[in-house]
Amino acid sequence: MGKQIISSRQFTIITLLYSIGTGILIIPASITKDIKQDAWIVAIIGVILSLLLVKLFISLADRTPTLTFVEANEKILGKFFGKFTAIGFIILTFLSAGELLYFIGIFMKTEVMPETPTMAFALLFSIIIVFATYLGIEVFARSAEILFPMFMFIFIIFVVCISPEVDIKNIQPIFEASSKSMASSIVSFMSIFSFPLVVLLMIFPSTVNVHKSAKKGYYIGTIIGGLVLIIIIALSILVLGSTNTAQRAFPSYALAQRISIGNFLQRIEIVMAFMWLCSIYIRTFMYFYASVIGIAQILKIKDHRPLILPLGMIAIVISQIVHPDIVHSNNYNKETWPLFSSVFAIFLPLLLIFVAKLRKIKG
């Protein structure tokens, strides 16, 4: 299969929507539970620190500009150790793809169609992901371009419509949380928001046409995505209050239920669901695409397309067994995921840069 190329603008949009991902629904509750009304402060600090993480990823990418993350592992660490770390990375992305299919199913069953089994939603969404992967990264990037203006338009309308419900007293007093709980919540926020950005090294910069612009896009997409999450978290606390936000499974969806303009614009929370489906589509695709491409590169398969359907079917199975219930999912995201993802988002890139310097590998 021929090499596919995307523009730096498309990469910026992918980064923006990818960084939002599942966070638009689950981050407000997860960090408000620990630090209450200071959650928005944690989000701001987390976004700033995430820029350092992006700098780390770009520094690594500069040393292997024509290779994917999986290929860079083998080039820098050697065939044996490189394959070992690459396999660990693929396990991370593939399990995460299955987990996001679980999230889609549990959200739709809980909030939208309670009579429909989660398997049905996972199956339907996986068909979209499999088809997009078969068409390739170029078609996916164009679909992201189409979804982006719709996402931002709905987000702006959402913010404007919910603003009359804001109560500034809900974020007072400020800086009440302890430094230990703040630090823990920052790591939790970054594990969902920016740790997964390492997966974008599977397409950056090897499939982007202008590397210099793509570097700026990496930062811009991360910043704008972070701003969206900061606004969502702040609005959840300002409208629902910290206690109510922490007790909700999907507080931003509950936030949309509060919108009421006159007697005609009500119950438009499904619009919030559309925003979330746009961002989770981008992240699920990237997890699955990285898994398929990574396996093909490890096995030295020139055409990755024969792997797509069987891996898609396995991902559906994983979505049904990865979490027995939402409580297990929340505990996993809070306790296991930050440690698991930090190995590949922080420690592995640092190791690769260190070894690359020793071996004098430069772009």
Q: Which class of secondary structure composition applies to the elements?
A: mainly alpha
In percent, how much strand structure appears in the residues? under 5%
The largest sheet has its strands arranged as 1-2
What is the oligomer described by this structure? Answer: single chain
Task: Please report the total strand number as a whole number.
Answer: 2
Order of helical and strand elements: HHHHHHHHHHHEEHHH
Q: Helical stretch count?
A: 14
Shape: globular
Rounded mean pLDDT is 89
Helix content: over 70%
Query: Separation of termini?
Result: 25 Å
Main sheet attributes: strand count, strand direction, barrel closure: 2 strands, antiparallel
Low-pLDDT parts are none
Q: Which radius of gyration do the C-alpha atoms yield?
A: 20 Å
Provide a short characterization of the protein structure:
The protein is mostly helical. It is 76% helix and 1% strand. Strands 1-2 form a two-stranded antiparallel ribbon.
Describe this structure in words.
The chain has a two-stranded antiparallel ribbon. Helix content is 76%, strand content 1%. By secondary structure, it is an all-alpha fold.
